[in-house]
Structure formats: structure tokens, C-alpha cells
């Protein structure tokens, strides 16, 4: 568990979230895409971001692979490190939301307790979007060749193979990503618009 320093005090900025959102013309929020590897999380998040950006919204996608190149480069895929990965992302996302940004995260985030903790950190601005795609479809796509390697025993702790994925029980939105990408883009885009504005 992270250790808390006893000699730090939260500094309240004069440029508030409300002022940032007024300048942006929309509210900030965190839209947390979860699902198996190959379920379309990153593809969907980036496509929705492109549409939002083209329509004047301030956005940022936090992608699982990209984050593990820097902020979380020291973490493995054990259960404890996955938990820490999600904790870091949750606090980073909260800072983005406080800046009035629409944040879209694409992380497998396989465990409900970790996603629930993310919700607590960012609440009430946390929106869980479940990319529902059958394992056999994700494995058939295998865009990174990871399922094949996991089946061969080359990758340990791989979600869906030798590590569990716990689907959300009450997500804000379920989108079926096994066939109609354009339909999912429209569905998620409309959902976000209803939550963020314009101001």
C-alpha cells in the first residue's frame, strides 16, 4: 500500500474547476472503458475522442499500454500490481477531471473492487462503460498476438486465460463491441454528451 506523507497539505488553486469548465464550455468527466483484451476498448475510446475533439471538446485518452510505458512502467501484471496500476490511473484521471477535461480510459481493469475504488476516488464524475465482447471473439481478433502467447504459456496472469475478468454488475453503459463499431461509437458519444454539457 502507498505510504502517506505527514507533512503535505492540499493547496487550493485560485483557478477552480468551475472556472475551467466555464472556459471550456463543458463539464469534465471520467468515462472508464473496461473489457477483455481485444474487446475494442482503445479503438472505441479513440474514435469517440476524435468525434468529441472535432466538435470542440477538451479530451484525453489514457490508454493501458501507453501508461505502462511511463507512469506505470515499474508494474507487472500480478494482482497487486494491477491494483496499483488502477489506483494511479484513478488519481491521475481525477486531476484531469478537475482541469475540466473529458477523460476516456481504456484499461482491462479486470477486478470489480479496483473499479469500485476508482469510482470512489473520482465520484461523482466516474462513468463505467463495459465493452461487452465474448472471449472467443476477442481471441479470434488477437490483434497483438497476446492470446496465442498466453495459450502457449509464454505470458502469465493473462486476463481471460489464467487470470479472471469480473464483468461489471451495474455499469452506467454496456456497449456490445463484437460487431457494430459505428453503433458503439454513436452510443457512447451520445451518452457522454448528455453528461458533460455544453455548459
Please specify the SSE layout and strand pairing:
Elements: H1 17-24, E1 29-34, H2 41-54, E2 59-63, H3 64-67, H4 79-98, E3 102-106, H5 112-122, E4 126-132, H6 135-141, H7 146-151, E5 173-176, H8 181-196
Parallel strand pairs: 1-3, 1-4, 2-3, 4-5
Shape label: globular
Sequence of secondary-structure elements? HEHEHHEHEHHEH
In DSSP terms, counting alpha (H) and pi (I) runs of 4 or more, how many helices? 8
| Radius of gyration from CA coordinates | 17 Å
The protein's oligomeric status is single chain
Mean pLDDT: 91
Could you give me the name of the CATH homologous superfamily? Answer: P-loop containing nucleotide triphosphate hydrolases
Report the count of strand segments. 5
Strand content: 5-15%
* Uncertain parts: none
At CATH level 2, the architecture is: 3-Layer(aba) Sandwich
- Output the structural class: alpha/beta
CATH fold node name: Rossmann fold
Helix content estimate: 40-55%
- How many structural domains can be distinguished in the coordinates? 1
CATH class: Alpha Beta
User: Main beta sheet, described?
Assistant: 5 strands, parallel
Q: What features would you describe in this structure?
A:
The protein has eight helices and five strands. It has a five-stranded parallel beta sheet, sandwiched between helices. The protein is an alpha/beta fold and 199 residues long. The termini are far apart. It has one domain: 3-Layer(aba) Sandwich (Rossmann fold). Helices cover 43% and strands 14% of the residues. It has helices spanning 17-24, 41-54, 64-67, 79-98, 112-122, 135-141, 146-151, 181-196; strands at 29-34, 59-63, 102-106, 126-132, 173-176.
Amino acid at each position: 500500500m502507498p505510504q502517506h506523507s505527514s507533512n503535505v497539505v492540499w493547496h487550493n488553486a485560485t483557478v477552480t474547476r468551475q472556472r475551467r469548465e466555464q472556459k471550456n464550455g463543458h463539464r469534465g468527466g471520467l468515462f472508464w472503458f473496461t473489457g477483455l483484451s481485444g474487446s475494442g476498448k482503445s479503438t472505441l475510446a479513440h474514435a469517440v475522442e476524435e468525434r468529441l475533439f472535432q466538435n470542440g471538446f477538451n479530451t484525453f485518452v489514457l490508454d493501458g499500454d501507453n501508461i505502462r510505458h511511463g507512469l506505470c512502467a515499474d508494474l507487472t501484471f500480478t494482482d497487486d500490481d494491477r491494483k496499483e496500476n488502477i489506483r494511479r490511473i484513478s488519481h491521475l484521471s481525477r486531476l484531469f477531471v478537475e482541469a475540466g477535461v473529458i477523460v476516456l480510459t481504456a484499461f482491462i481493469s479486470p477486478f470489480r473492487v479496483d473499479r469500485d475504488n476508482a469510482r470512489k476516488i473520482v465520484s461523482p464524475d466516474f462513468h463505467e462503460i463495459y465493452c461487452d465482447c465474448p472471449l472467443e471473439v476477442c481471441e479470434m481478433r488477437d490483434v497483438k498476438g497476446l492470446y496465442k502467447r498466453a495459450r502457449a504459456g509464454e505470458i502469465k496472469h493473462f486476463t481471460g486465460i489464467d487470470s479472471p475478468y469480473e464483468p461489471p454488475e451495474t455499469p452506467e453503459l454496456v456497449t456490445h463491441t463484437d460487431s457494430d463499431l459505428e453503433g458503439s461509437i454513436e452510443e457512447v458519444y451520445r451518452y457522454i454528451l448528455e453528461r458533460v454539457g455544453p455548459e
